[in-house]
Amino acid sequence: MLKVVGASWEQTRLTSILLFIVVVIALVTILFFEVPIDANDGIYSATAFYSKQSGFNIKFWGQNNHPHKVKKGIVRAYYKPTTHQTGWASIEIETQSKYPDWAQAFGAGLLEGSLSWQLIYSRWMNIIGTKCQNNQEQCNAIRAKLRDMETAAKAKAKKADLTDHYWHQVNLYYTQLDGLEEGWKLGVSRSRKKKQLNILHEDFLWMNSVEDIKNLEELRYNNIDEFRNSKQYVSLALLKLLPNTTVQFMLAHESGGPYTEMLRMQKKYIFGYHYTSSNKSNLVPGETIVFTSYPGAIYSLDDFYQISGGNALTVSGTAMRMLNYSVLEKIDFNKILIGPRVMAACRLSRKGQDWADLIDIEESGTGGKQWLVVDTKGPLSFWVVEQGPGITVGSLETDILANQGYWLSTGIPHFEKLRSILGYDDISKTRFGKAVDMLKTGLRNVTNPGELLELMHKPELVALGRPDIIKYNNEYQEKTTNPTNGGVIDLKIAIGNNDYLATAGPLHSDEVPPFQWSNSILQYLPHYGQPDVWKFEPVHPPWVWH
């Protein structure tokens, strides 16, 4: 007789059920703990809601949100803190025109300040916090001046807000800046670091007035070593006409600045502003402004804009080197600083000539530039506008552009009147020399963005903007054994008015190595939040809302 050894049928059934449960638990564990269903995408979004009764209410949606499902409210924002991946962070902000302009502006500032609070604090440490530790007296004097100028500008703007288009935009600029400060405080509070971190109100003004303050320092404090900077950073703009193409032109733009200022942001503002504070007034032409900028700044600062809506403008600015410092006495600090003037011009202009006229209103004389304004709303037109203390000169230069096929801006004034005032008695003494000839020759043969990138990465041109590399001091650079604390810190190439490529950081090539803080002779400079090695590829803008 065969004997069956084992459990009963009931025991076998129970064992099978238990085994099934164990297998299910194991699978769930693997799925939820070893293979995340929805990994964080590193992109943050938020919406500000507003009503007259309850004021502002902000909803932070966190990560993993489809951009088109982010609720609009009065303002919504989409923030990518990708500094260490691409060299750029980015933020896109969209407001709704049915709400009052002031609420749109304040809400936009709230979201930008709260989402990017960490980058704002790092930038503040790099350019103000560290700098002012041993220069409290001078820094407080600058803060007092900025506070006085803000008070005066706000008073004028509020008085004319209801009727004057220009002053309404100035008012919105300062309203957005107030919102940015409140948003930063909110971001710090949410991180539970409120007691450890603080940025003065005047320092938010400072972060938006860097160019103006440079002139203030030159005028009042140029005898103090910590504030003296007699060498101007290299800044270039190259406009190439591309007739019979859909994009019509390309514009390469290199920004010059201190390496402490390499925390960069690409920004896209889609604002439903009106001509006046009345919602019954028409919407401004410059609805969408795309620009490269910095944390805590609400205008470009590096002077690169693409503007669209009721207009189609590409604007770049190249700092003009001042050789006659006595002209600084003509600066009028009772007028409007460069930031609100530029943003007002970008929003109110329907065509290039409008921009040239608007940038001159209430001109303080600070942040002098050669501005290139390309208008593609209709047949392409091209304006050049130059500003210095007490003077603005602009003219239509479309014919010259058409005849040459290009325009090269190196910071040397185009107009004779500006050359005389700024001290350019002999432009042959300027430092660009053979580099200008190389650029002119190269531009004639450039037909696409790849070729323009290749031209800008020629070793001689790269070294021109890299004073940190002593061994590359040559005829294309100023002779020095004591390099400046900065140089070229980016390259943008506008491809028509609707696209661009952006490279973050000092340029490099096969012959010129990437900038690296840890082995640089400039490593003593503050660089909180920055990558160590600046070796990034060009990127297209990462916009999601159109």
From TrEMBL:
One of the protein's GO biological processes: phospholipid catabolic process
Q: Which UniProt keywords apply?
A: Glycoprotein, Hydrolase, Lipid degradation, Lipid metabolism, Membrane, Signal, Transmembrane, Transmembrane helix
User: Membrane-spanning regions, if any?
Assistant: 12-33
Q: Report the EC code(s) recorded for this entry.
A: 3.1.1.-
InterPro entries in alphabetical order: PLipase_B-like
Q: Which PANTHER family match?
A: PHOSPHOLIPASE B-LIKE 2-RELATED, PHOSPHOLIPASE B-RELATED
The free-text function statement in the UniProt record for this protein reads: Putative phospholipase.
UniProt name for this protein: Phospholipase B-like
